[in-house]
Amino acid sequence: THPRLGQPLELECLTHKEDSGAFWIHQDKDRNLHFIVFISSLSRSTFNRNEKTSTRFEARKDGRFYRLVVKSFKTQDEGNYFCLVNSNQVLYFSSGQPAFFPVTTTAAPATLAPTTHHNITEKDPCPRTPDTGTNKGKETDFFCNIFIWVPLSAACLLLLLALAVTIALCQR
């Protein structure tokens, strides 16, 4: 359906593999990325600032579907919505779900409806934005790097700690 001012808009993301949760990210008209929510595989939602609920969004898991509801769609909610699924320590990005109000012209009204993509694509793990002389592309790369390098660094630190404990115990 077309998003209507003040009306709810539901987006969904279908997973095909066993996963450990999904993130919903909003890319606004200026191509800035905004974290909305993380939904665990047990259907527990964590919104911005570690909140369990949101006044603007609802999130839930229904079987293999991760759903995001914009409770009352407003101009600030226009943009592209991405679902990111963590499956077997690999992060998969959806192709994006555009949600914009219909554009009307004086010649003939154009109807642009948001499309809903149900599948996770495995082609490119990080969305790319064209670099128009700004740092937007680098910001997207930095965003992807956070989701890849932080968990990897934490795992390496944990392995190093386990190795140190093992060596200390074997020395006794």
Mean pLDDT: 79
CA-CA gap between termini: 68 Å
**Regions with little confidence, pLDDT below 50 for 5+ residues:** 109-132
What would you give as the CATH superfamily of the largest domain? Immunoglobulins
The backbone outline, from C-alpha atoms, is elongated
Question: How many domain units?
Answer: 2
Give the class from helix and strand content and strand pairing.
alpha+beta
Could you say what the CATH architecture of the largest domain is?
Answer: Sandwich
Could you tell me the number of beta strands? 9
Binned, the helix content reads: 10-25%
> What's the gyration radius in Å?
19 Å
The CATH class of the largest domain turns out to be Mainly Beta
Question: How many alpha or pi helices?
Answer: 1
Q: Describe the sheet with the most strands.
A: 6 strands, antiparallel
Order of helices and strands: EEEEEEEEEH
Keywords: Adaptive immunity, Cell membrane, Disulfide bond, Glycoprotein, Immunity, Immunoglobulin domain, Lipoprotein, Membrane, Palmitate, Signal, Transmembrane, Transmembrane helix
InterPro entries: CD8_asu (IPR015468), Ig-like_dom (IPR007110), Ig-like_dom_sf (IPR036179), Ig-like_fold (IPR013783), Ig_V-set (IPR013106)
Transmembrane segments: 146-170
Domain Ig-like: 1-94
Question: Could you characterize what this model shows?
Answer:
The protein is α+β, with helices and mostly antiparallel strands. It folds into 2 domains: 9-99, Immunoglobulin-like (Sandwich), CATH 2.60.40; 141-171. It has 1 helix and 9 strands, in the order βββββββββα. The chain has one helix spanning 136-171; strands at residues 9-14, 22-27, 33-39, 45-47, 57-62, 65-70, 79-87, 90-93, 97-99. Strands 2, 3, 4, 7, 8 and 9 form a 6-stranded antiparallel sheet that branches. A 3-stranded antiparallel sheet has the order 1-6-5, with no helix packed on it. β2 and β3 (33-39) form a beta hairpin. InterPro entries: CD8_asu (IPR015468), Ig-like_dom (IPR007110), Ig-like_dom_sf (IPR036179), Ig-like_fold (IPR013783), Ig_V-set (IPR013106). It is found in: Cell membrane. One of its GO terms (biological process) is T cell mediated immunity.
